[in-house]
Fold these 2 entries.
Entry 1:
Amino acid sequence: MNLWPSSVLFPLQWLLLVFTDSTIQPVSQLQPVIAINGLFPGPLINTTTNDYVHVNVFNNLDEPLLFTWNGIQQRLNSWQDGVSGTNCPILPGTNWTYVFQTKDQIGSFFYFPSINFQKAAGGFGPIRVNNRNVIAVPFAKPDDEFDLLIGDWSFDNYKVTRSLMTDPTIAFDSIPNIMLMNGKPPFGNPQGKAFESFTVTQGNVYRFRISNVGTTLSFNFRIQNHRMLLVETEGSYTNQTILDSLDVHVGQSYSVLVTANQVDADYFIVASPKLLNATEFSSLVGVGVLHYSNSVAQPVGPLPTGPDPFDINFSIDQAKSIRWNMTTGAARPNPQGTFNVTNVTISQTFILQNSEDVIKGSPHVVVNNVSYLTIDTPLKLADQLVNGSGVYQLDAFPVQSINLNASFGVSVVTGNHKGWIELVFKNNLEFIDSWHLDGFGFYVVGFGDGDWMAALRMTYNLFDPVVRSTVQVYPGGWTAVYAFLDNPGMWNLRSQLLKNWFLGQELYIRVHDNDPNPAKERPPPENLLFCGIFNKSASLLEHHHRP
Ligand SMILES: *[C@@H]1O[C@H](CO)[C@@H](O)[C@H](O)[C@H]1NC(C)=O
Ligand SMILES: *[C@@H]1O[C@H](CO)[C@@H](O)[C@H](O)[C@H]1NC(C)=O
Ligand SMILES: *[C@@H]1O[C@H](CO)[C@@H](O)[C@H](O)[C@H]1NC(C)=O
Ligand SMILES: *[C@@H]1O[C@H](CO)[C@@H](O)[C@H](O)[C@H]1NC(C)=O
Ligand SMILES: *[C@@H]1O[C@H](CO)[C@@H](O)[C@H](O)[C@H]1NC(C)=O
Ligand SMILES: *[C@@H]1O[C@H](CO)[C@@H](O)[C@H](O)[C@H]1NC(C)=O
Ligand SMILES: *[C@@H]1O[C@H](CO)[C@@H](O)[C@H](O)[C@H]1NC(C)=O
Ligand SMILES: *[C@@H]1O[C@H](CO)[C@@H](O)[C@H](O)[C@H]1NC(C)=O
Ligand SMILES: *[C@@H]1O[C@H](CO)[C@@H](O)[C@H](O)[C@H]1NC(C)=O
Ligand SMILES: *[C@@H]1O[C@H](CO)[C@@H](O)[C@H](O)[C@H]1NC(C)=O
Ligand SMILES: *[C@@H]1O[C@H](CO)[C@@H](O)[C@H](O)[C@H]1NC(C)=O
Ligand SMILES: *[C@@H]1O[C@H](CO)[C@@H](O)[C@H](O)[C@H]1NC(C)=O
């Protein structure tokens, strides 16, 4: 069986066959799991800076599907971003080829299904963007690398959960059941299912690329008797710091180096949830094993203890200590610190507050009292064909104040092309939120408790803020980031928490460049799909049936 479309044979091509696999049961419950090429998690997409990547997705699910490439910036090319505002879904039984370039990027990322709550059923997999050989990396080449996707997981059928999202108790109060490491339940799980294990050789150094692929929970990551050297966050080399444990929030990715410098034995790898008592929620503690090749024994002793999960100060202090290494090159030889944000002039400020709300009897999550209304027509397609008209109204909702009445809306906001934007996220909820911006890396300049006010800009770190694409916002607190809007396109700004996103915590930033030169923004791809008000088959059908 030859499934490769013969017209597009490129060296960096991935074929992703997506289906629900009833034989993959990470836990004993019968539930649909979205597998890719028979794997859960899906296969590694292994690329190098500036590669053109072709990913041919065959949707064998019984419902529409889209993948998004978390943290891949899709430079000048939001056509490939794979969210509801940029792409028509890939219909069941059909295939679609994404083509994108990992332009000027390095680092650790992951992909996942972006619509229909499908992420709760899996469908995620790792992405690496390796450095080109000519670019120096600020640490010695590790002996091996491991991708480690960790996330909370629920026993329910995602379609049932999705349909119950109209119930406020389920939407707002339910807690996942278990923490999986690369799709595997914890060491010592009662079903005797395989747990995750990494084999290492004493004396060697390993790079772990850790991502939080879960739906809800931040976790603290640690390895028994081993310390970690933090080296990378979502495509930025950090000031290297030695850590006993690392907090990873939903949608974030990190690289740490681990030296196998202990006696030959097996050691626990732990990911325990934040803001939950690990004694009361012991099934939510992910446990894997670091196995020394000469070890013959299983790991022993209590699990390594991490910080108190309720100690938010630990987490904030650690977050503030993660800095950009300003002097190292990343994708290019010039140092990351070429962009010094100390003196930048801010052209726009958005202050975005989340909250839970019941609108017309159904639970929703709002941003400034607006719950994003997901529509069938991609905003980007509407921009291209009818300048947005009839699909959305630009700047119809406030981004600095709160809408007087809670409402639904297709919220699309102007981002000034080549302007610096300051985004302030305020979290009015009781759990740790996580915001993500497609199309850009943003500079994480500040965290604070309580309300944000302009005077708090004094507290920003404008010296060496780390650049990343997903940032946590602590309960009752705020986080501020800067981004340089040099990437024209239609860009999703969302909560990475699946329920929040599904229930409306998102909006789009439209960065428009009037210059039609295709060297600036790319034209639509040749395989552009049409849907919503531009669905040709639907309009033909309608035409055909018209008397
Ligand atoms: C990923 O690609 C790099 C560069 O081509 C190669 O050296 C490495 O072995 C690949 N890794 C995997 C796991 O395929
Ligand atoms: C994949 O999609 C293309 C474009 O729609 C189509 O021509 C091709 O037949 C499809 N391939 C398979 C194996 O379904
Ligand atoms: C920053 O990068 C430089 C250049 O690669 C390296 O020499 C230095 O050790 C790094 N500094 C820290 C604190 O990680
Ligand atoms: C980051 O590293 C540089 C160079 O070693 C140093 O000057 C700077 O103080 C470090 N920043 C932090 C926050 O550790
Ligand atoms: C967690 O729960 C256990 C048992 O209910 C209790 O003894 C312990 O103090 C709690 N720990 C924290 C950090 O709240
Ligand atoms: C956390 O830090 C804040 C600000 O520094 C301080 O007011 C508060 O008491 C600290 N909380 C704990 C539990 O240490
Ligand atoms: C950035 O610019 C400011 C102001 O000129 C300067 O104080 C600071 O040292 C610069 N940062 C770096 C990392 O060079
Ligand atoms: C920032 O502004 C200060 C004061 O105007 C100036 O001395 C400095 O050179 C500027 N730094 C950068 C990186 O532009
Ligand atoms: C497209 O829409 C924007 C705002 O929605 C408007 O400012 C602009 O003039 C329109 N352009 C054209 C060519 O109609
Ligand atoms: C948000 O909307 C709700 C419900 O419509 C309204 O009661 C509330 O006052 C609004 N919030 C603010 C801060 O205006
Ligand atoms: C808010 O909703 C109330 C009740 O439906 C209505 O009377 C009022 O006019 C609305 N206010 C705004 C600003 O839309
Ligand atoms: C287009 O319309 C047809 C006929 O109504 C429907 O079967 C199909 O799912 C629609 N396609 C998209 C991408 O919305």
Entry 2:
Amino acid sequence: MSIQKNLETVLENIRYSEKKAGRQENSVKLLAVSKFHPADAVLEAIKAGQCMFGENRVQEAAAKFTEIHRTHPEAELHIIGQLQSNKVKKAVQIANCIESADRIELIKEIEKQCEKINKTIKILLEVHTAEDSKSGFENFDSLVSAVQFIADGNTPHVILNGLMTMAPFTDDEALIRKSFSTVRLYAEQIRTAFPEFTLPVLSMGMSNDYKIAIEEGSTEVRVGTAIFGERNYSE
Ligand SMILES: *Cc1c(COP(=O)(O)O)cnc(C)c1O
């Protein structure tokens, strides 16, 4: 199957799931996760009309997207993997959004590096909802502390755009659903407590579970394998 065909299929599935869940058409965006796939694959996806991409390693993303941005400056890049503080400088240079903000220290570093280059960047706060995942704010209280930190005006170069999570890797649909509904609930509670944050983005759902995520309120699904095929980690 070609990348173009895969993209068509995934987009059809997204539209179908929106409808089935009673969601507005086009309320769910597709982030194509291109990690471990070459720049050529990204270019093929761009040609097929895809404009948002996700990468989880800064080094790899920088190498790939410096090239891609030369001919396609409009291609949007989101960093979705766990981010070490010493990679933030590079990350904010190349990315439009950092979806894996998972600690206040990291948010401080994002602010510091963005201020230096006079750039404003979007972030999502990652919520830890799966036993088998390591990253994300551990609970509602720690999440709210981060929101409060931003609300206090400490980060003028950071736009809090929403929440992100990774569901557990399991066949247990109830567990997956719980992970997504928890994050949706957290977002509702934050909007009530902090009306200045509308949190338009809930980044939830991957190749295996994006249909469930859409039923549970996702506004952005991060899909890699179903678009680009299996990743070869040995290379
Ligand atoms: C790799 C990755 C994805 C995409 O996973 P697929 O199963 O290939 O769709 C989504 N989100 C994050 C955070 C990832 O690291």
